[in-house]
Amino acid sequence: MNFSNLLIKWYLQNKRELPWRNTTNPYPIWLSEIMLQQTRVAQGTPYFLSFTTTFPTVFDLAAASEEQVLKLWQGLGYYSRARNLHKTAQYIANELAGVFPGSYKELLQLKGVGEYTAAAIASFSYNEVVPVVDGNVFRVLSRYFDIETDIALASARKEFAALAFELMPKANPATFNQAIMEFGALQCVPKSPNCGICIFNESCAALQKKKVDQLPVKSKKLKVRNRYFNYLVAADEKENTIIQKRTAKGIWHNLYEFPLIETEKDEDFHFIKERIQKDFFSNNVVASLLEYNEKSIIHKLSHQHLHIKFWKVTLKGVLKNGIDSETLKTFPFPIVIHNFIELN
């Protein structure tokens, strides 16, 4: 079909040179696909290079501790991806002798691997005839064919996958999949695409109908929840501090943080002082309390906005289980806490 031929020709002339593109080895392809979920290529590439340098094989990744993996992942966000990555590496190394499943259906059984990721690995590694459907694909196809299906619906993926399968040259599925995603990333971008230079500007239905900015259709996101975090950065007479591991399910699971007071709203000095005296550092006398940042740092996650304050708590005596500043930097933290530590 002319669509596929034009698309692949465009791709071969315009594609970016990316480190995971010149291989059919499923290990780096899997790594890159997991990293690029919810992450732009420019942000993900340095992490990919760090991981492949530190863990050149799936056995190396499997042998690492979870803390090593989380530390290397620090700053990429959506940390469940890193935990699943590690568990899957252990499964492949220990249960499958390091050999990745060889088909789309088998890949789907891996932890952290959904329909998109399984399709990407299957087509790029094994040239299996299976379409990938990500945000780029939704956007390109919905605009070209003027499809008004709400892509937030679970049924949308099946509809778009069927269309992509029809368009896909069965002898060359990997290149087609790479091409349509690259076209969405570079040319058919979400906002203000340059349709004047587009290879499809004579056949794109959305362009003819002046609907480019209306497609794809996506229903509104979930309501954002506001949370208020007050971190207590203790310093004893040895300048040691104390941290804790977030073991509860939810954001930042298994990452580290300072002792936390979570409140219903932005609270002042007197409220925090009372809570510290009542609930924290029972073995040490609080000598002073200072606010590092008068205005909260707002850290935006997909469905939560965290309003974060750091409080310096100077203590008399020596903290039990206290750690020094060098040891502190070896732990995996959420990026907002990591940045605070680096600056202070």
TrEMBL record:
<keyword id="KW-0411">Iron-sulfur</keyword>
<keyword id="KW-0234">DNA repair</keyword>
<comment type="similarity">
    <text>Belongs to the Nth/MutY family.</text>
</comment>
<dbReference type="GO" id="GO:0034039">
    <property type="term" value="F:8-oxo-7,8-dihydroguanine DNA N-glycosylase activity"/>
</dbReference>
<keyword id="KW-0479">Metal-binding</keyword>
<keyword id="KW-0004">4Fe-4S</keyword>
<dbReference type="GO" id="GO:0046872">
    <property type="term" value="F:metal ion binding"/>
</dbReference>
<dbReference type="GO" id="GO:0000701">
    <property type="term" value="F:purine-specific mismatch base pair DNA N-glycosylase activity"/>
</dbReference>
<comment type="function">
    <text>Adenine glycosylase active on G-A mispairs. MutY also corrects error-prone DNA synthesis past GO lesions which are due to the oxidatively damaged form of guanine: 7,8-dihydro-8-oxoguanine (8-oxo-dGTP).</text>
</comment>
<dbReference type="InterPro" id="IPR003265">
    <property type="entry name" value="HhH-GPD_domain"/>
</dbReference>
<dbReference type="InterPro" id="IPR011257">
    <property type="entry name" value="DNA_glycosylase"/>
</dbReference>
<keyword id="KW-0408">Iron</keyword>
<keyword id="KW-0227">DNA damage</keyword>
<dbReference type="InterPro" id="IPR029119">
    <property type="entry name" value="MutY_C"/>
</dbReference>
<keyword id="KW-0326">Glycosidase</keyword>
<keyword id="KW-0378">Hydrolase</keyword>
<dbReference type="GO" id="GO:0006298">
    <property type="term" value="P:mismatch repair"/>
</dbReference>
<feature type="domain" description="HhH-GPD">
    <location>
        <begin position="35"/>
        <end position="186"/>
    </location>
</feature>
<dbReference type="InterPro" id="IPR023170">
    <property type="entry name" value="HhH_base_excis_C"/>
</dbReference>
<dbReference type="Pfam" id="PF14815">
    <property type="entry name" value="NUDIX_4"/>
</dbReference>
<dbReference type="GO" id="GO:0006284">
    <property type="term" value="P:base-excision repair"/>
</dbReference>
<dbReference type="InterPro" id="IPR015797">
    <property type="entry name" value="NUDIX_hydrolase-like_dom_sf"/>
</dbReference>
<dbReference type="InterPro" id="IPR005760">
    <property type="entry name" value="A/G_AdeGlyc_MutY"/>
</dbReference>
<dbReference type="Pfam" id="PF00633">
    <property type="entry name" value="HHH"/>
</dbReference>
<dbReference type="GO" id="GO:0032357">
    <property type="term" value="F:oxidized purine DNA binding"/>
</dbReference>
<dbReference type="GO" id="GO:0035485">
    <property type="term" value="F:adenine/guanine mispair binding"/>
</dbReference>
<dbReference type="InterPro" id="IPR000445">
    <property type="entry name" value="HhH_motif"/>
</dbReference>
<dbReference type="GO" id="GO:0051539">
    <property type="term" value="F:4 iron, 4 sulfur cluster binding"/>
</dbReference>
<dbReference type="Pfam" id="PF00730">
    <property type="entry name" value="HhH-GPD"/>
</dbReference>
<dbReference type="InterPro" id="IPR044298">
    <property type="entry name" value="MIG/MutY"/>
</dbReference>
<protein>
    <recommendedName>
        <fullName>Adenine DNA glycosylase</fullName>
        <ecNumber>3.2.2.31</ecNumber>
    </recommendedName>
</protein>
